[in-house]
Design a protein that fits this description.
Fe(2+) binds at residues 192, 295. By secondary structure, the protein is of the alpha/beta class. The chain has eleven helices and eight strands. Helix 10 (294-310) links the parallel strand 7 and strand 8. The structure holds ligand L6N33NVT and fe (ii) ion (2 copies).
Length: 341
Amino acid sequence: MAKKGILLVNLGTPDSPETKDVRKYLAEFLMDPRVIDVNPVLRTFLVKGIIVPFRSPKSAKLYKEIWDDKTGSPLLHYSILQHKLLADRLGDEYQVELAMRYQSPSIESALDKLKASLVESIQVIALFPQYASASTGSVYEKVMNIVGKWQTIPSISFINSFHDNELMIETFADNGRQYQPETYDHILFSFHGLPQRQLIKCDHTDNFCLKVDGCCNTLNDTNKFCYSAQSHHTAKLIAEKLNIPKEKYTICFQSRLGSDPWVQPYTSEIVAKLAKEGKKRLLVFCPAFVADCLETVYEVTEEYGGEFKALGGEHVQLVESLNDSPKWIDALEEMVKGQKF
Ligand SMILES: C=CC1=C(C)c2cc3[nH]c(cc4nc(cc5[nH]c(cc1n2)c(C)c5CCC(=O)O)C(CCC(=O)O)=C4C)c(C)c3C=C
Ligand SMILES: [Fe+2]
Ligand SMILES: [Fe+2]
């Protein structure tokens, strides 16, 4: 009997922490028109002329800090575990493949495997809880470009986002609970940032995101695809599960690149403000990531942790990502089985 194909796709990571591989990764990633969304001439100049040459050696040093001798990049390591655990869970009726949007394993090679197995359908899950054109949108465009050239196109489905998935929220809450959030001075929900213009472009009404006061802080029918509003919603659901009162947490955005305005407030500014207010211990959730990666392990723990301590704080504790938690695999299984063709 024909199997059902499942394609899990995460962002991608360099093949090694060496500068040449980081350069190759950053060039592929940042030349994506959905990531650096400016005209092609300016994008090529910015990426190939400035960002890649200057950033690659610095990023390579950071990747070396988080690279494990045996398992390599945490992002790839946990993605491989998630793939294996989900495949085991789903059994013979399904064929599950893993791909990365950038670098390896490629989306092309994973789709080729599903094609060769004559799967009856393909369900694509971009592993980003909140929708952004630069992440989920880019994965789905790439899949459509490849599959669109096939002679026979199977039934295919995409999940726009899973920012409010109950089992995912519970997994983050369970991970946080073990640190006893009530013993921390303040809690941060730090999401990957996004240029503000990308929020505006995702607003199909053209007069809501960043135009109406508080527009991107509350999810509603008008802004249901807004990355910021979805992020706020995820954070509120985790905070509710843990009974964290509103005044005890802040939603913020990290990893800004370049000088254009990104979604605010910036995590670095919040960390500095909290240190100046005399807060000593921070607990940080990063619910834009389903696997620990450079942006969580290094940026939160080392970079923000260092900045916080330099300003008088004592400790920044990262809450682990979903990684290989059984409940997160339950969430993936539920997403797969809940999808009707
Ligand atoms: C959560 C989803 C992500 C969105 C949205 C996103 C947008 C985005 N990112 C950059 C620039 C960089 N991001 C980098 C690393 C990185 N980004 C995500 C996820 C999203 N990015 C992840 C999971 C990672 C970690 C990868 C890993 O190998 O661990 C990097 C590289 C690291 C560095 O040099 O600092 C850059 C650069 C932009 C410009 C952008 C939106 C427009
Ligand atoms: Fe990123
Ligand atoms: Fe918005």
